[in-house]
């Protein structure tokens, strides 16, 4: 920025601050204690920018796919429930208490010094602390800070600062070309297969999300699939994301794995381009590409030298012998050696084998195609595993655990529709004595009681379509509607007041409530 312009802006800001302080002292302006409430437009702008940057740890995608339920109407909050501030504070305190002494030393502070802090203040401090980063005025505007008349006068100052601030707050390295990295995304052929029906199958209540969030779901899904290995290594096997429908009911999962595209600057498969990139980083990217091309050229030259040193003498010798023999003729006849005859026979044998194989392949291709189609149609979706215990094959892997503390909706999906990613059939078909470990059979029994009661409520409410006789015959989106009907009835029976976060209730909690409800019914 021009120094004269920077000086002028700072002078205006200082004068504006003096006027405000004078008005407060004279009692002509209200004095706010603590942080001023951010306006609705500020929340929308801040949420939009934070959602479009796709954080490095992919927490937003994991959260939305693990807890996808949203009700029709009302506030569309990112984190469901009330008192989010105190819940986050308690969670932060528990995490800090679990840190070891070595981890606290790495953080260079004591546990008492760690606490919650304003996201706007921390983000602005970080963005303003970078060399050649966004200007203070642009940061204040994007963080929702008021600048009075300057906001209207200099609204176009610092073009691209929104994207620049977003990339910096996301933690991308500002001094590397990787600062211009694009979020993981799918190529157009896979995107074209992600219809509304597809999203209804893997995201419960997809139609209840705002349009802006719906448009971000392909990027969130690509992020989760791209970092699947990282998530499986970092999270526990019982994490809700691994039993969510994004894995258990995703019909495109095998096609999506390995198909995600991660590029810098511009996508090679679509028109997606990175914005908010400083000019020096764009130049650094071109220089790095030029360096790679020069390195590849040197490598090709070295390989060519090696090939010439190894192959050229033999090729020259063969060519010289061939020329001499063509020119050396006795009485009009070229001399023939045994080696010439052996070479001719070997060439003839190679040609005959190739012709025979081509004819056999052409004759067997129709039959092989028919057999492949039959086997593909008869191949079951569900797998079997051998535990090496001398018994028949089991329907689950040897070290598999029955889910604990999973939400009722997640267990509902697994109970009636199974886990297609792992190849485990619907949990209602599992053998308690044969497939469930002894220490997990209590979980299976409680889930079985809750699911049986849910089926009873479905039958009493007549929630099934006329042409369907059992829940497992439904499509997954239709099963969501049936579950909502039965779950609402269940909550009204088991709770005098609707719980604050019903979507997080586990089967164990509902089992205890159901036992109390049945005892009260018997005593009455």
The largest β sheet comes out as:
none
Provide the structure class.
mainly alpha
* Shape estimate: flat
Q: Which percent band covers the strand fraction?
A: under 5%
Q: Residue-averaged pLDDT, rounded?
A: 78
Radius of gyration over all CA atoms, rounded? 34 Å
Can you give the helix content as a percent range?
Answer: 55-70%
Give the assembly state of these chains: single chain
Number of strands: 0
List the helices and strands in order: HHHHHHHHHHHHHHHHHHHHH
- In the predicted model, the low-confidence regions spanning at least 5 consecutive residues are 38-57, 150-157, 368-380
In short:
Keywords: Coiled coil. By secondary structure, the protein is mainly alpha-helical.
Blueprint (SSEs and pairs):
Elements: H1 3-25, H2 40-52, H3 59-66, H4 84-97, H5 101-107, H6 119-128, H7 136-142, H8 150-153, H9 161-169, H10 188-192, H11 196-202, H12 211-226, H13 228-234, H14 245-248, H15 253-256, H16 279-327, H17 338-378, H18 408-417, H19 441-461, H20 476-494, H21 507-523
Helix pairs in contact: 3-12, 19-20, 19-21
């Amino acid at each position: 920025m021009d120094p004269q312009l920077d000086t002028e802006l700072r002078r205006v800001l200082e004068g504006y601050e003096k006027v405000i302080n004078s008005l407060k002292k004279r009692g002509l302006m209200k004095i706010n204690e603590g942080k001023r409430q951010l306006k609705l437009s500020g929340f929308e702008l801040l949420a939009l920018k934070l959602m479009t940057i796709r954080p490095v740890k992919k927490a937003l995608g994991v959260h939305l796919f693990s807890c996808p339920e949203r009700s029709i109407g009302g506030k569309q909050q990112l984190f469901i429930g009330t008192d989010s501030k105190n819940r986050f504070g308690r969670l932060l305190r528990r995490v800090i208490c679990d840190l070891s002494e070595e981890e606290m030393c790495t953080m260079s502070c004591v546990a008492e010094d760690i606490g919650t802090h304003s996201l706007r203040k921390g983000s602005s401090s970080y963005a303003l602390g970078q060399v050649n980063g966004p200007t203070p005025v642009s940061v204040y505007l994007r963080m929702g800070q008021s600048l009075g008349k300057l906001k209207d006068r200099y609204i176009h100052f610092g073009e691209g600062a929104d994207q620049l601030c977003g990339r910096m707050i996301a933690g991308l390295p500002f001094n590397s070309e990787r600062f211009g990295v694009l979020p993981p995304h799918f190529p157009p052929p896979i995107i074209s297969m992600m219809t509304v029906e597809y999203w209804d199958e893997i995201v419960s209540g997809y139609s209840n999300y705002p349009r802006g969030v719906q448009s971000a779901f392909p990027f969130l899904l690509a992020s989760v699939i791209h970092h699947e290995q990282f998530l499986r290594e970092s999270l526990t096997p019982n994490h809700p994301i691994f039993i969510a429908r994004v894995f258990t009911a995703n019909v495109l999962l095998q096609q999506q794995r390995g198909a995600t595209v991660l590029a810098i600057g511009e996508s090679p498969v679509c028109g997606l381009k990175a914005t908010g990139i400083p000019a020096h980083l764009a130049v650094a990217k071109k220089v790095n590409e030029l360096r790679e091309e020069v390195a590849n050229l040197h490598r090709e030259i070295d390989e060519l030298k090696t090939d010439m040193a190894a192959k050229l003498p033999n090729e020259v010798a063969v060519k010289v012998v061939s020329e001499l023999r063509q020119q050396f003729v006795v009485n009009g006849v070229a001399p023939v050696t045994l080696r010439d005859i052996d070479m001719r026979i070997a060439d003839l044998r190679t040609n005959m084998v190739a012709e025979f194989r081509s004819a056999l392949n052409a004759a067997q291709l129709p039959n092989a195609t028919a057999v492949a189609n039959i086997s593909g149609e008869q191949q079951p979706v569900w797998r079997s595993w051998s535990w090496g215990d001398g018994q028949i094959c089991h329907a689950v892997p040897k070290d598999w655990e029955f889910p604990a503390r999973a939400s009722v909706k997640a267990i509902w999906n697994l109970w009636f529709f199974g886990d297609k990613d792992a190849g485990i059939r619907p949990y209602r078909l599992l053998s308690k004595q044969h497939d469930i470990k002894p220490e997990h059979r209590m979980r299976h029994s409680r889930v079985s009681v809750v699911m049986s009661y849910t089926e009873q409520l479905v039958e009493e409410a007549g929630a099934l379509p006329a042409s369907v006789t059992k829940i497992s015959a439904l499509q997954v989106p239709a099963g969501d509607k049936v579950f909502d009907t039965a779950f609402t009835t269940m909550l009204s029976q088991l709770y005098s007041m609707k719980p604050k976060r019903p979507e997080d209730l586990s089967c164990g909690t509902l089992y205890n409530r159901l036992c109390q409800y049945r005892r009260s019914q018997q005593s009455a």
